[in-house]
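Appendix C: a fully annotated inverse folding record. The material below is reproduced so that readers can follow the format used throughout the book. The structure is listed first as tokens, followed by the designed sequence.
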């Protein structure tokens, strides 16, 4: 009669990976930064997608990666979350971070493109 509600007895805390968000349209503040500061084509920027994750050190930061969905799908790469692009750095156009409570964006351009 000892039930473990909400817990799987076969999994350990090391095996449980924090669920990360799925790919979405590019984050608005990142898109605005690419258009205004980096002078990128607005039509191209708003067709891009991004994946995010909370920063491991600072909880007020969000790490992001920007990629082109068309080129990723043509290469048959399955992007499920932020770490899915670890094995395919050539598909990352920009990556960086932004504070949750601010409008600033800090990014680097991938030189593989």
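Designed amino acids, in order:
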């Amino acid at each position: 009669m000892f039930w473990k509600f909400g817990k799987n007895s076969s999994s350990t805390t090391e095996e449980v990976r924090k669920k990360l968000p799925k790919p979405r349209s590019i984050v608005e503040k990142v898109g605005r930064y690419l258009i205004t500061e980096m002078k990128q084509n607005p039509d191209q920027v708003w067709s891009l997608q991004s994946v995010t994750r909370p920063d491991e050190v600072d909880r007020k930061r969000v790490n992001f990666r920007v990629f082109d969905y068309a080129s990723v799908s043509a290469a048959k790469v399955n992007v499920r979350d932020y770490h899915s692009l670890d094995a395919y750095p050539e598909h990352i156009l920009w990556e960086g971070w932004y504070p949750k409570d601010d409008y600033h964006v800090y990014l680097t351009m991938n030189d593989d493109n």
